[in-house]
Write a structure and sequence with these properties.
Distance between the termini: 8 Å
Radius of gyration: 16 Å
Structural class: alpha/beta
Number of helices: 3
CATH class: Alpha Beta
Oligomer: single chain
Helix content: 10-25%
């Protein structure tokens, strides 16, 4: 059990299990994109640890860029998406893979898909470490999913609570037990 600010969190997915699944996802991407050079678009800030680990495990020449969008306030999605930082290069005609930490309601991802589709990529796929099917409000096709989790608030491995907890090596779930 750990405490971050005013909330308590219990272990959910340990580091070894996270890294094992990240390596499996990287192997799938390597196989699926053999002979290609996909561009990975990491969604900041939450995906930075996931992006770091998965891009090191993909055995292909890859491009890397970042976008920053926001839709959370505290532990809840606001339902409104803001783009804070844009793409660094042209995605036209490229195979693009969005690297996301978590797909919750799907509103941020739907916004990002619309934004990136305007760049005319050859293909556009999503790899998300976490998916909350019970919270999903958008019809999304997520090709690579690390873990499906219940609709609960999580921190660690890049995900935060009010700016804290991103550096935790494992994932933790919010709990009422102290």
């Amino acid at each position: 059990m750990i405490k971050i600010n005013d909330l308590f969190f219990a272990p959910l997915i340990p580091e070894a299990q996270l890294l094992s699944r990240v390596n499996e996802l990287a192997a799938e991407i390597t196989t699926d994109y053999r002979g290609k050079s996909p561009v990975l678009v990491a969604v900041l800030n939450g995906s930075f640890m996931f992006m770091s680990d998965i891009c090191k495990a993909i055995d292909l020449p890859i491009g890397i860029t970042f976008v920053k969008i926001a839709s959370y306030s505290g532990t809840k999605s606001t339902g409104e998406v803001r783009q804070l930082l844009g793409l660094e290069f042209d995605l036209s005609g490229k195979d693009v893979i969005i690297v996301e930490d978590i797909v919750d309601t799907g509103k941020s991802m739907a916004y990002l898909l619309d934004l990136l589709n305007r760049e005319n990529p050859r293909s556009l796929e999503i790899v998300s470490l976490l998916l909350k099917p019970a919270a999903l409000q958008e019809d999304l096709q997520i090709r690579y999913i690390g873990f499906e989790i219940p609709d609960l608030f999580v921190v660690g491995y890049g995900l935060d609570y009010s700016g804290q907890g991103r550096n935790l090596r494992s994932l933790y779930q919010k709990t009422e037990i102290q």
